[in-house]
Amino acid sequence: MPRISLGDIYLIPTPPNGLHYHVAIAQSDNDSYLFVNYSTVQDSTPDEDLDYTLSPSRTPVKYLNRESFFVFGSAKEFSGNQLDLLNCKRAGVFPPSTVEQIQYAGLASKSLKSKYKRLIKSYLGLL
Question: Taking residues 114-127, what's their average pLDDT?
Answer without folding.
Answer: 94
